[in-house]
Task: structure prediction
Amino acid sequence: MKTTILFKTLILSVLVFSFGLTSCIDPVEEVKIDHFKKMTDYMKANNLDLNHMTSQWTIDAKDVAAAPTNFYIIDLRSAADFATGHIQGAINTTLPNIVEMAKNAGSKPIVVACYTGQTAALGHVALRLSGHPTCKILKWGMSSWAPQFDRWTANISDRALNHANWSTTNAIVPSVNFTLPAFEANDTTGAGILKERVAVMLAKGYAAMSVKAEDVLTTPTNYFINNYWTNTNVNDHGHIKGAYRVNETLTLAADGFKNLDPDATIITYCWTGQTSALVSAYLTVLGYTNAKSIGFGANALINSTLKANKWSAANVGNYPVVTGN
Result:
């Protein structure tokens, strides 16, 4: 009986002692990871800044047509449209699968094609951020390859000319500073976080990252608008009222992304919608949750007044196509 009591007393003493030790130990605080900083530090160190996305990134149809089999051409159009006609040697895939498909390129330079060049811009960003620094898009998309593929002509417009919300003088809003975006990721390495964010952007797709020109022009105050032109371009052509102009400084190195409002719907526009789609894709990777591009760019606003990067019938080629899958 005494033995039992002593044993129980001993056990109780051990438990009390253990509890006392445990209660004296401060709880370990989980280290909070700044996923944005971790990823962008990696991007800066590996030449993955925005300016590396826009360097030598387009190729004209005539240059591809001269030797199409010299390129690894990834066609992002629907399987049905691909079957009706595509460039010799082209491979058909979906936007979310583009990084995986690019692994088969071997030593060939990659060219990404779509209907108008705008969806291809998203794929291009994904590839350059995934180890393919020389990939390019087919400028103007398959619209520049043959007349039957033209989806540009029906989308050009002069709707902004004489519109109340188009400023013909340079009244660009001065830049202001905002906080940088924040997001969560499963990985904790810069490379791993970037891979996750690229997948997020690709899954989102072009439709969710684009907006019609007329919608922005009608109610520009609903958006944070960034005119991705030079100051000279703005002087020459004007701009949507209320727009900012963040271009040359829009890099990680220059800390220019602090001039974009992460809580707003960020609308970027350029000449053709191809560069602004690229920028919107990059912003989405960085964690801007509502970055969009004006479809067809200034060509959907002031086409007839443009001096360069202007869509016209002269841009439509008549190059050979292959049918079937």
